[in-house]
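Standup notes
- DV: blocked on the single-chain target, sequence here:
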Amino acid sequence: MLAFLALHFSETDVGSDAGAVDEEEWCLELLRKLLLTKTLFFLITVLRYSTRLLACCTILKLILLCPARKQENKRHPALVEVRLGWIRVSWPVTMAKTWSLRYMFTRLKLGMDETFAQMQTTTATLPIAVQKGVEAYRKELTKVIYLSGASMVPALNAKASTDPSAVEKLLIRLFPRPSFKDLYAGDTVALQSPLSAEQQVLVRRLAAVEGEEMVSDDTELASWSLPQGHCWVLTEADTFKPNEVIDSRSFGPLPVENIIGRVVYQCQSPTEHGPTSNSTEAMADDAVVLDAELDVDSFCSKDSQTS
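- DV (later): unblocked, structure below
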């Protein structure tokens, strides 16, 4: 019988806040779904490489070890316990910043996804797959970019409608392996232009995703469906003619692999800033990332408004 894999997190300094119960139940449900879909493949792969099942504990231990963070916050120790059948491994983890369980599981999922993806290749060995997973887990989930031009007015860089030199600072939630499990119609996304060999980054609205029916304004053209793994992105501004914009009207359906991430926060000035309007699902998913990685005062400071 295949061993059952489970994780149990407990923080010694967690208070009696009522929200902690809901958060724990949410995390356990997420973990249950993740294990149901991936545990079998993972164990078979480990056996294929003739590695003991104890290697699973090692992988999870490496992924869960939090990177050193330069923070002034008081250090909070936590106990991480991994059970694999009759094997139980536990060790203390000291984090420079206390992360919510939802945020920790979000990073854990990225690390595990990268490990599994590497295992499916014909060239990667188990140690390399583990190393890639650890690296993915330890990376920050966000990055900063600057948007110029009026292509996304009024949603982004609104001042560009009257000031061509206006620039808005954006915080992007990165998706190393983008898929429509994480991206939704209505999201504002950063993407690599398929028309530029220099990897030009554009910001566009995700208007439709794979499988959705596309209907043209031209009644002579038949409707069609977006192919699998592709989406339709558009600019926001309505002051441009279709032949003057760079979006799906000029380059067609966009491969999901071209999407870098989702815009989650925008700042025009120290007094004009806030979360970016995205789909309801996306804003709920991104809230935990913003809470963990966004320092509003630093992000919106006057000195940080120029690249």
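- Follow-up: Residues 8 and 222 are 54 Å apart (CA to CA).
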